[in-house]
Amino acid sequence: MMPYPDNDSISSANNRLITEELGYEIQNLQKEFENHFVALTDEQRTIFDNIMTAVHKNKGGVFFIYGYGGTGKTFLWKTLSAAIRSKGHIVLNVASSGIASLLLTGGRTAHSRFSIPINLNEDSLCHIKPNSDVACLLKKTSLIIWDEAPMAHKHAFEALDRSLKDILSSDNYNNSQIPFGGKVIVFGGDFRQILPVIPNGSRQDIVNASLSSSYIWGNCKVLTLTKNMRLSVESQSSDMEQTKVFAKWLLDLGEGNVGSSNDGETIIDIPQDLLITNSFDPIGSLINFVYPSILDYFDDPTYFKERAILAPKNEVVQEINDRLLSLFPGDEKEYLSADSICQSEYVHDNFDESLYSPDVLNGLKLSGLSNHRLTTGDIIA
């Protein structure tokens, strides 16, 4: 006679979120892990061993993996995820931005996954009800990976910390005294890149809003990646040397070693080959450089997949979009996005709107702006 499943097993089987996170093909993940593990550098393997030791001990641990672009943070996340998922356990991959979350298997934005409030303060909590599906998922989770962490406001991490302590203390009161309720959590990113955006904030306001200014930072074990993996894939020595020079310049720029003494403002000499020298029409020159012969390829999706123009402000993005759209033949088409389902579209009385999140309904939504004008060749920086 087969034993009757316990309540915990029944609850997990009825939890759609847990089912999704356990729905990976174990054999494929084992092969993926084996392939990734042998490719780890000595730095990456040391960090991998540190994190996996904490996961196996199941007593919590907070890590921050510090490395500039190209040092293999994303590859490390994938290796960790494959290692744990291949054992039938749960890893939650989140990121501070939607674009970064797309690079992670099963990735979501941190705000979406943990229901972090948009308007945060020092007392904020995540909107997670006790014994809800999300709460049960968090209890079952072995590891949380949060990529591009320096972009998020410190109050977001603190809200998750308080919420996990509250949720997990129901099983063990001691969890309320441990960072993140005893869950192993790995933050990753580069403080040389984008820090939290504080409207009209001063330099001091931005630094104060960063993770490194939170009480959580004192609990973080900081591990560093320094080897630029992207330099090892260059096929020609001339390309590798050029990439090395550019990578060093970027690193020096981020460290504040370019230009004169830096007291908050400094003059930086930009290499001549990176400059737009046409002062009369700089945007036109930029478009011609990034999108040469655009009229010959405007209807080829692969042409635009290989190119992008990044801009510091939305108004510059709009100006570039307008210039590009004016070059294309044909008429503009406008597509509108939606945040909710119209009442007239309900097919039955028991319709559950919670099954259709704004992320699904608003597939065309970009940068939090509704009614965004999307046209052929739309470029979003």
Characterization of the model:
The structure is a single chain. The chain has 381 residues and is an alpha/beta fold. It folds into two domains: 223 residues, Rossmann fold; 106 residues, no CATH class. The chain is built from 16 helices and six strands. A six-stranded parallel beta sheet has the order 3-2-4-5-1-6. Helix 6 links the parallel strand 2 and strand 3. Helix 3 packs across helix 5. The longest helix is centred in the middle third of the chain and has 19 residues.
Descriptors:
single chain, 381 residues, alpha/beta, Rossmann fold, 2 domains, six-stranded parallel β-sheet, 16 helices, 8% strand, globular, disordered C terminus
What's this entry about, in short?
The chain is of the alpha/beta class and 381 residues long. It is globular, with a radius of gyration of 24 Å.
Strand order of the biggest β-sheet: 3-2-4-5-1-6
Strand content: 5-15%
How many angstroms separate the termini? 61 Å
The tally of beta strands, per DSSP, is 6
Give the name of the CATH architecture of the largest domain: 3-Layer(aba) Sandwich
Structural class: alpha/beta
- The helical percent reads 25-40%
Rounded radius of gyration (Å): 24 Å
CATH topology grouping of the largest domain: Rossmann fold
Text of the CATH class of the largest domain? Alpha Beta
Q: What is the 3D form?
A: globular
The number of helical elements comes to 16
Largest sheet: 6 strands, parallel
Low-confidence stretches: 364-381
Secondary-structure element series: HHHHEHEHEHHEHEHEHHHHHH
Number of domains: 2
In CATH, the homologous superfamily of the largest domain goes by the name P-loop containing nucleotide triphosphate hydrolases
How much is the average pLDDT?
83
